[in-house]
Amino acid sequence: MKKHILEVSGIQKSFNNKLLLSDIYLKLETGQIIGLFGRNGSGKSTLLKIIFGIVPALDKSIFVNGISKNNASTLLNEIGYLHQNQFIPNHFSVLQTILLSVDKQKAHFVCEDDFLKSLLNQKIRDLSFGELRYLQVKLILSNQSKFVLLDEPFSGLSPKMIEIVMLLIKENSQEKGIIVTDHHYRNVIEIATDLRILNNGKLQVINEKAELMQKGYLINSAIF
Ligand SMILES: Nc1ncnc2c1ncn2[C@@H]1O[C@H](COP(=O)(O)OP(=O)(O)OP(=O)(O)O)[C@@H](O)[C@H]1O
């Protein structure tokens, strides 16, 4: 396995003169699954968008394997990003979407997916919320990128599909570095190799699950 390293530093972000993210540094390596937590509105999605390059942050530095990637267009082949929202046009069929999203070899593999194979001729607009979410996660994880940022991959999925997506994330982490943020915290904890929390604008390392309570993300009676 070839190891790749993504390093991002100097991330500051304010909205309406309110500081949201302050001097964030993050390192992600192949094989790592970083679980990212934080209260609603703490800036998790904004941080992922800044790393991916669709939200500007003036002092950001980003390096892949030690090479500067400060020009966002050079990042497109390096990082895959799952939005919270739908990114596929409604009039596409599932098959068209797969063929346009991944290379030929991977497309064959995605079309053979147990869950997707009966949906290939269906239009995107006719998929259920969970079916669409699963398709998007599968495509993002199947593309060539070295790193993947997943914003709420478990959202709207049934328990069985969550298990399938957890497995998919774990399998793909053999070849990719992955960040997962999702309020299904137990599932995130189960697959993550490392945990971080955004707390008062700072990105902090979580070593013990109990710190998620101390930092106000979980209530004290939360059971793991
Ligand atoms: N373009 C914007 N203009 C102004 N404020 C914004 C903008 N984008 C995000 N915000 C604010 O920044 C804060 C962080 O938003 P963000 O979506 O990153 O939070 P989050 O941690 O992902 O939250 P959640 O867990 O609820 O999804 C919120 O208060 C949000 O209203």
From TrEMBL:
InterPro entries: AAA+_ATPase, ABC_transporter-like_ATP-bd, ABC_Transporter_VariousFunc, P-loop_NTPase. It comes from the Bacteria. SMART domains: AAA (SM00382). Residues 6-223 form the ABC transporter domain. Keywords: ATP-binding, Nucleotide-binding, Transport. Pfam families: ABC_tran. Gene3D superfamilies: P-loop containing nucleotide triphosphate hydrolases. GO terms for molecular function: ATP binding. This is ATP-binding cassette domain-containing protein. It comes from Flavobacterium chungangensis.
